[in-house]
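Recap for those who missed Tuesday's class. We walked through two folding examples back to back. For each one, the amino acid string is listed first and its predicted structure tokens come directly after. Nothing is annotated here on purpose, so try labeling regions yourself before you check the end of the notes.
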Amino acid sequence: MALYTIGEVAQLCDINPVTLRAWQRRYGLLKPQRTDGGHRLFNEYEIDRIREIKRWIDSGVQVGKVKTLLMDNEQEMADGWRKQQEILLGYLQNGSYHRLRMWLKERNHSESAQILVKHLINPLRQRLLSLQPTLLALRGILDGILINHIARSLSSTAKYPGNHALVVGWNVSDITRLWLEGWIASEQGWRVDILAHSLNQLRPELFPESTLMVWCGEAPCSAQVNQMRLWEQQGQIIWLNHATATSPGGGDEPVARLSAAPAGKKPQ
């Protein structure tokens, strides 16, 4: 997921940076991430939220009342996604795997992979992460269906022009997550391959012809964080750890632009 500086967001949303700061500080409408240097970074969710705030204000709603409206909308959205999780869970429990595949395919026509992964797939997979054998079996079936769906999608997009990326796991056990990250990248213009097994030791120089997109789990160790920042600064990899990634130099620059190859990589 790309991160944007406040200046970039101001241009994208046609709004003054001073207004964005006021929405955050005075009204609590925004919660941007921060770099080590304290600079704001906005993800695509925040950009959508800013546009929604603008729509409310343009329609005549006072800015002080927008937060309540947003909270109501977010709760309604969360309830909607929860219902869709229950639909998928029902298909799994009933053994209706073909219906699940068709449902997933249909949803992917109307929603991006990024939205589906964030609001539907990751939360459901987390619910099924249990010591109970039945739930683990359902998660395994779901993962198999997801990988099959994503493999078809990657095969379809491979015929189109675009930069090549290799999605790699570094010391991770959840291989399905690599496929989910590759799926997101493919919808953002990359021709993606997935390294089927996680690597205990990562050496970017072994893959000189590919842009490496590296996933090292939700909570990478400090050594991984420092090494990933260095590699990213050198243009060797794109770091897929959205939650923990910050600008390597502490400056106000985006962490990873999935829509463009990093420096030093040539389009394939």
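Example two. Treat it independently of the first, because the proteins are unrelated.
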Amino acid sequence: MKPGATKGGGRTAWLGAALLVTLLAAQWVSGEDVGADSQQEQAEEKSPPAPRGRMAQDQPREAQPEEAGRLDVERFNRLESRKFSAQAGDIFSRKSWVPPPPPNAKPPPPSAPPLPFKYIGKVTEGDETQVFLSLAERNYIVKPGEKIDSQYRVDEVNDRAIILTYLPLNAKQTLVIAGLGEVR
């Protein structure tokens, strides 16, 4: 390597040239001439604003800047305050595009949970019928009038269904057994 030469110097020169070309192309595409804008701004700074209206022609040049300020205030004070119709409501209130929540409906009345028991079978001896039920890993042998875990009471057992009462709500429920395996 030569002394004073930097690694990648050629690459930097190419990147600089590409940047310059890009800037010139962007200016050309936008159609703006920077020189013309700056000349126009300089011309505006040198010349005072042209007087307007009949009063500006009647007054001497030195008094016009003070009078212009007063005229603007007078014109402002003569303006009537704007009245908005009542139909407009609060024009500065917050607007939300989220639909409003539905009105709170009454919660449904409490109801008994679905029957958790599975029918396994039944045995009839004489006029007494015992039913075999399972709940998770527990098996129950019950007959009409007995309670199951202080939650359910067996009311009736017939060939097609078992009628149970959910005790906390005193709600009757039916466990259908027709067509399932039976032991006689």
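Answers for example two:
The mean pLDDT is 78.
The chain is about 30% helix and 20% strand.
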